[in-house]
Amino acid sequence: MSLPELRSLPLPFKILFTGTLLVLGAGFLVAEFNLYLTYHLTDGQPGLTPADMKRAFYGQRDNTKLAAKIHGGSMEQFLPKAGDKEKILSWIQDGAERPGYVAVVQPILAENCVRCHNPNGLQRFTPLTTYEEVMAVTQIDRGEPVSLWARVAHTHLQSISIIFLVLGGIFALTSWPERVKAVVVALPFLALVVDFGSRFLAKYVPNVVYLMMVSGAAIGLLFAVMTLTPLYEMWLKKPPERSPGS
Ligand code: HEC
Q: Of 24, 208, 215, 229, which residue is the least packed, with the fewest Cβ within 10 Å?
């Protein structure tokens, strides 16, 4: 079956495809930016690295969540006064008992942390206003809970598959060889399953984060190829030279 050429589609279709490709592409870039903002400070250093991914998904098994966050983690910045961090760390080391909490830890948290960590604050999911609440983050840091993985994975798998259905439908009209197109439209689905599968496995095997980052990069590359090629063929590609006599 011969498909219509992208270049010679009726104008309304070209505009429809162009709008879809541009806005889906912009949405993808914003999603990547969101990912960066969420995870780049996980290890306390700027830049999104495998170390951030391991801390986020596997956790720090020799450490508690509270200690991991205030010692080389994203919450260290909120303890500007010298000695406060050490006081909290030694309280955890000494068994995190209630008297030490009341005497030492509670005032530090009240001054520096509770403005976000309260039931109405920015970080309402982990309030730090009572001993019991603080005890909940004084457990071993096992990284992202499976429940969060399930919430993120099911919506992403479903919605991104639909996006790649649309992108693949438009990309299939390009002039690339049939076999190459067949591979390109299949790869995003494979990469998606590997990406979210490895995000799950990273809870058990931390080095799987490398596989996760490679598959994430592959999704980005495929997204770029599948958006830019049709845009090029619709608007920029020159019609083939007509051979004399035709
Ligand atoms: C400006 C608001 C803000 C302040 C102030 C703040 N936090 Fe946070 N906290 C957050 C946000 C947002 C997160 C989730 C993102 C992250 O983990 O980096 C978080 C996450 C945490 C977590 C991990 C919770 C979890 O279950 O994953 C702990 C523990 C924590 N903060 C402790 C503290 C401590 C201790 C202080 C004070 C020294 C503090 N925070 C000050 C906003 C804040």
A: 24
Give the pLDDT confidence of 197-239 residue by residue, as tens digits: 999 999 899 899 999 999 999 999 999 999 999 999 999 988 7
Rounded alpha-carbon distances, angstroms, from residue 143 to 58, 69, 90? 5, 12, 22
Distance 123 CA to ligand 1 centre (A): 7
Q: Rounded to whole angstroms, how far apart are CA atoms 164 and 223?
A: 8
C-alpha to C-alpha distance for 109 and 21, rounded to whole angstroms: 48
For residue 2, give the amino acid letter: S
Q: Is 117 in the pocket of ligand 1 (CB under 6 A)?
A: yes
Q: What is the mean pLDDT of residues 23-45?
A: 90
Place of tokens 């996760």: 212
In the chain, what percentage of residues exceed pLDDT 90? 73
- The length of the chain is 246
For ligand 1, whether the C-beta of 66 sits within 6 Å is: yes
Cα separation, 63 vs 133, whole angstroms? 18
Provide the pLDDT for residue 246: 45
Contact present, 145 and 58 (Cβ < 8 Å): no
